[in-house]
Specification:
The complex is a heterodimer of chains A (115) and B (113). In chain A, 37% of the residues are buried. In chain A, the strands form two sheets. In chain A, strands 2, 4, 5, 6, 9, 10 and 11 form a seven-stranded mixed sheet that branches. In chain A, strands 1-3-8-7 form a four-stranded antiparallel sheet, with no helix packed on it. With 115 residues, chain A is an all-beta fold. Chain A has strands at 5-7, 10-13, 19-24, 31-38, 42-50, 53-57, 64-68, 74-78, 87-94, 105-106, 110-114. Chain B is built from no helices and twelve strands. Helix content of chain B is 0%, strand content 52%. With 113 residues, chain B is mostly beta strands. The N and C termini of chain B lie far apart (41 Å). In chain B, strands 2, 5, 6, 10, 11 and 12 form a six-stranded mixed sheet that branches. Chain B has a four-stranded antiparallel sheet with strand order 3-9-8-7, with no helix packed on it. Chain B has a two-stranded antiparallel ribbon with strand order 1-4. The chains are: A mainly beta (115), B mainly beta (113).
Chain lengths: 115, 113
């Protein structure tokens, strides 16, 4: 079974631009979560989508948004990029069979650099 | 609020020896899950092992075992027979009622030949 895939793997943008990252979950997984990893803040939860609905959201500004499609693929968008948005963005998928117990499997990440 | 604490920024271990990575957690939830992930320099988070809060036995997965002490709120990872390929960052994480993971700050493990 194929793992979680994320595209692109690397991105370079300039301040003020917007960016869209894509995530394809493991086949059969209905939940997709996004995390941001930076040296200063560590790993932080952005949001989770389940059956095309945002089910949970972390403490990030509205510039960060996402969506999920009917095939469970998910996209994350960041508008008006800031230097502090430079990070590794990780996507994870899970069966979401039971909240609070599900193992999340991660993709390779997208490394975003904002200049 | 949920919190994960990893107090060892870095650890060294001799090849073929065992090593324990520490993790303590804090939550008021009765039902929760504890995970360990490995992150090599490539960046991908690799799932290693899971322990549910109601599991009475410690979880094991090959060379990985989780030393779960509920009363102390600790969930230490034990890696037996360390290999050079075990050199990486290791993260302890917790999941509760909402389906999002809370991560610790990680421990960088270096295996010495």
């Amino acid at each position: 079974k194929a793992g979680v895939t994320q595209t692109p793997r690397y991105l370079i943008k300039t301040r003020g631009q917007q960016v869209t990252l894509s995530c394809s979950p493991i086949s059969g997984h209905r939940s997709v979560s996004w995390y941001q990893q930076t040296p200063g803040q560590g790993l932080q939860f952005l949001f989770e989508y389940f059956s095309e609905t945002q089910r949970n959201k972390g403490n990030f500004p509205g510039r960060f948004s996402g969506r999920q499609f009917s095939n469970s693929r998910s996209e994350m968008n960041v508008s008006t990029l800031e230097l502090g948005d430079s990070a590794l963005y990780l996507c994870a998928s899970s069966l979401a069979a039971a909240l609070g117990t599900d193992t999340q499997y991660f993709g390779p990440g997208t490394r975003l650099t904002v200049l | 609020a949920q919190k994960i604490t990893q107090t060892q920024p870095g650890m060294f271990v001799q090849e073929k020896e065992a090593v324990t990575l520490d993790c303590t957690y804090d939550t008021s939830d009765q039902s929760y899950g504890l995970f360990w992930y490995k992150q090599p320099s490539s960046g991908e988070m690799i799932f290693l092992i899971y322990q549910g809060s109601y599991d009475e036995q410690n979880a094991t997965e090959g060379r990985y075992s989780l030393n779960f002490q509920k009363a102390r709120k600790s969930a230490n990872l034990v890696i037996s027979a360390s290999q050079l390929g075990d050199s990486a960052m290791y993260f302890c994480a917790m999941i509760t009622g909402a389906n999002n993971l809370f991560f610790g700050t990680g421990t960088r493990l270096t295996v010495i030949p």
